[in-house]
Structure formats: structure tokens, C-alpha cells
Amino acid sequence: MKRRAPRRAWTLRRTIVTGASVLVALALLLTSIITMSALRSAEIERLDEQVLAGLDFAAGPRGEPDGNPGGPGGSGFEPAARIGTLQVVVDGAGTATSATYAGVDGEEVPLASSQLEALLAADLGERAPTTIDLGGELGTFRVAAEARDGRTIISGSSLDDVDATTGAITGILAVVMGAALILVVVGLALVVTRALRPLERVTGIAQRVAERPLAAGAVELPDRVAAADTDPHTEVGRVGLALNTLLSHVETSLAARERSEQQLRRFIADASHELRTPLASIRGYAQLSQGEDAPMTPTQERSLERISAEAVRMSSLVDDLLLLARLDAGQQLRRDPVDLALVLVDAVSDAHAAAPDHEWVLHVDETVEVRGDEGRIRQVIANLLGNARAHTPAGTTVTASLAHDATHAEIRVRDDGPGIDPALGSRLFERFVRGDASRHRAAGSTGLGLSISQAIVAAHGGTIEVDSAPGRTELIVRLPLT
């Protein structure tokens, strides 16, 4: 079953303008309905007065025509009778003695038999005008009846004028209110846009801050919401004020973190520097003792060997920590031309000599030159190859390749070993982290090799990534060509 795409959320501007416009439209529509209902009621009331006036005229002394067969109360229209006014006189036997309506020229036109039947069949109240549809060209009438002198006199007036008037006014109202609605929508859009501008400025500040790298190093947050947008008496102003307070707290916390990191880097650098001299002394005395001709027991010889080996390992660890501290402090590296192809060939040759029980494969199609510190780049490649050698069993194939595109050189070191534990994937470049859970444990590993490699690559403006799965691990280094 195909899933429907999620509906796109409306913006605050669109929600406010649309909601307010709908309410205004409903208000205008309701006003129009009430207005037209009141107008039609007033027109019908006026028409009813004319109907009753015509009824009085037809029933009065002036309605008794001389010699008219209809007798008293016969047909006779007011002098100012409207076109379509009708009068009917019904005698006591229920026979219409007169049934006419005022024609276009004011002449009396007889009612058709069907119209007269519809009129007589209607339930007409005493002097209570009622709406009746007579059909044909006459249409709808307001009709009233009155019994007098044994006769029933019926008078009526057409609703055509009322319908025409209300129809015309309805059209005018539709045009006027449509134009008013358009003006309201445009006005609302302008007002809401103007009202939301401070919020857009606050959003812009938040976006600029969000785009700043805050993970490490000295971080400054100079962006602040302007004073005009921090009025605590407005909703947007309170948001801007809260954002400024938040940014101040974050900046203070980041500054405290940076001071703590600087103190830690200075401590590591100072401690590493101070440890180098005593470690060198330990190594020197161990070597001096081993070189003496005085006889030693096997235990003494073994102890001196361990002292010398651990002093070497400790010296290496101190050197690594000192290098990391200097790189963290932003130490500038040399920027000399470096032939990556030559560096990679030398590194693979060294790795093959150090671990002949692994299968080493090299893919270098052409010379690729970058600018950087050749010694540090050699250290990175040696670390990657050493990592593959140390954490994979004998017989593993390790492939090193070099390629480039228009802007970057790319070094890949791939092995078909057991892979890296997924739990370590996000922490692989952290200091003192080892991939012992899923790969062969390397004796004497400090867990700083990949951390140092990442720091050196970053100092060259490059990146280092890892891609690992069961039976495959690949480390990718990208360095800018210039």
C-alpha cells in the first residue's frame, strides 16, 4: 500500500491570514444574509400595505361601479395601481364576478381560468397577505382577501419588483463585499508580515548561531537579537530576550570549556615534556646495565629487558601525547610539496617488511602531489597500515590505493579482516580507544594512533573516515591538493 506523503505544515503567516480571512468572509456572508432578509421583509411589508390598500379601495364606495354587472364591490383599480395588481370579486355562491389584473398599460386584463382556480383554491386569511404562485407570466403574488356584504374581495400585488430589487442589491453586495474581502486579505497579509518581521530576525540569529561549529576550540557567539526586538511587553520580544539570555549562557559555558581544555593541553604538554628526560635516563641506565660484563642472574636480565622495553613504550606514549597537545593547540605544520605516491610506496614496503605474514597490495596509477608536512603525512599512512597489520590475523590482505579528483587526493587502506565492532564505530577516533572487541589485540597498542592521524589530517585541512562491516574495513583519507 502506497503511503501518502506527509502534509506540509502551514506557516504562521499563512495560518493567521487564512484563519482571519475565513472569519471575515463568514462575517460578511452572515451580514449579507441578515441585510437581505431584512430588506426583503421590509419590501414585502411595504407590498402588503399596498395589497391591503387595494383591498380597501376595491371594497369601498369607490369600488361600486355604475351599472357594472359585478355590482357593489366590483373590479376597480386605484388610479396609481401598479402593473400586475390584481382584484377578484367572488359572490356568495363562490362565483367570480370579476377577476382582472393591471396590464402593462394599466388596462384591466382578465385572469386565466387556471390562475383563477389557483387563487380560489388558496387558503386566504382575512386581511392577511399570503404568497401565492399563479404560474404563467404572472408569477408570484402577495394576496389578501376580505368578506364584505356577502361577497369576498381578493386583492394582490406581484412580487416581481421585490425580487428584482433584492436581486440587484444582492449583486451589489456581492461585488462590494468581495472587494472588501480582497482588501481585508491584502491588509491582513501586510499587517501580519510586518508583525512577523521581528520574529524572522530572531529566527535569522538562531540560524546563524546553529551554523557555527561549537564542538571544539574557541567559540565566539557575537550574534544577538537587537534591542528593538527584545521588548518584554511583546510575545516576539520575550522570545528575543530569552534567546539573548540563552546565547549568553552558552557563550559563557563554551568559554569555560575552552579554558579547561587549554589548561588540560598545557598540563599534557608540560607533563609530557618533563617526562621525556627521566624516561631517557631510565632507558640509558637500562642499556648501560645490560652492557656491563658483570654476571647477572636470568631474573635480572629479564628485568632489565622489561625496563628497557617499557621505557621505550612509555617514551613513545609521551611523544604521542605531546604531539596531540601541540596539534590541539593549533600548531602550524610545514607546507612543502609532498609526493603521496612515493610516501605510500615507502609505507607499504615498510609494512611488508614488518609483517610478511600479511598480503600487501598497492594501487598507485600516477603521481599525486599535495602541500603539507611530509613527516606527519608519513606518520598518518604508517598508522593506518600499522592499524591494519596489528588488528588483523596473519594471512589478511591489506590494499593501499591512491587516487585524486579536481580538489582532493584520496588514500584508501582496506583489509579483509574481521571488521570493527559496530559499538566502537562512533568512538574509533577518540583517544585511548582500541578495537579489541572484534579485531586481533595488538601488543603494546596505546589507542592513540587513529587520534593522532585524525589530528594531523585535520591540521592539513583534510578528513579521515572509516567504513567497516564484517569481513571488511576501509579507512579513507582525503587531503586538499593545494
UniProtKB/TrEMBL annotation:
InterPro entries referenced in this protein's UniProt entry, alphabetically: HAMP_dom, HATPase_C_sf, HATPase_dom, His_kinase_dom, HisK_dim/P_dom, HisK_dim/P_sf, Sig_transdc_His_kin-like_C, TCS_sensor_his_kinase
Residues passing through the membrane, by range: 168-192
Domain HAMP: 193-255
Protein keywords: Kinase, Membrane, Phosphoprotein, Transferase, Transmembrane, Transmembrane helix, Two-component regulatory system
Catalytic activity entry: ATP + protein L-histidine = ADP + protein N-phospho-L-histidine
Any matching Pfam family: HATPase_c
Example of a GO cellular component annotation carried by this entry: plasma membrane
Gene Ontology molecular-function annotations: calcium ion binding; phosphorelay sensor kinase activity
Region (Disordered): 57-77
Localization terms from the record: Cell membrane
Segments forming domain Histidine kinase: 270-482
Location (main, coarse): membrane
Enzyme superclass (EC): transferase
Enzyme Commission identifier(s): 2.7.13.3
Cofactor: a divalent metal cation
Protein name (record): histidine kinase
High-level lineage: Bacteria, Bacillati, Actinomycetota, Actinomycetes, Micrococcales
